[in-house]
Amino acid sequence: MNAACTVLMYHATHRHDAELGGADAHYAVTLDTFEAHLDCLAQEGAVACAVERVPALGAAGQRTVGMTFDDGHATNLQAAQALAKRGWSGTFFVNPSTVGNPDFLSWDALRAMAAMGMSIQSHAQHHRYQNELTQAEQLDELSQSKAAIEAQLGTACTVFAPPGGRTTPDTVRLARQAGYGMVSTSRVGLWDLRRADPWDVPRFAVLAGTPMAQLRAWVRQSPLEVGKQVLRYRALRTVKQALGNGGYERLRAALLPPSKDN
Question: What is the pTM assigned to this prediction?
């Protein structure tokens, strides 16, 4: 059995800038870049799969990379097609309240992706930070999104990815209560498959500027590169906690180029 797994987190996967409406350009990668990432995985002897399928494949001796996508941007259909061409899969976290809106996947597109073997899971009903909600509001977000996805697609919704990675001490308990079996977080690190804790699955966020050498190092599980990313995540988490969501978002907006919304 493989001891650990790299889980990647993508957002928009566009062919050209005109497709970036509604997306955060900082987190968007071109489709050509995404295809190159898949080539990298193949070169490293790994297969991409939906995150909830990782433990079983790892137990069977398969080297896997968990493939996840947050926010349900319309360009993710292209990523699903690229994965399906290779016989691979991914987990796509969507907010039912935005499904069918301009720049976002429709239910028909999600049904097509599910038919390709993709896993469609919950990013909450709305893209609201869980640490700004009451327990009752969190439970509503979890329950409503799960019910909507299952009703529309006829597939099980058992995995939750908190928007923005924000959680509270109650998030896991509430996810269990709502009927989930896994929480895919924004914590950075390798997923220890010996423990295979389904309630805190860490991920590496792939950014527009992520170099191929860095992604390859994540796949190879380089201790130096993984350690650097863990330290970066902890530093950012400290800043977020100090500034609060609003303060951090204002700082981020001041430091990064504006997102494309054309």
Answer: 0.94
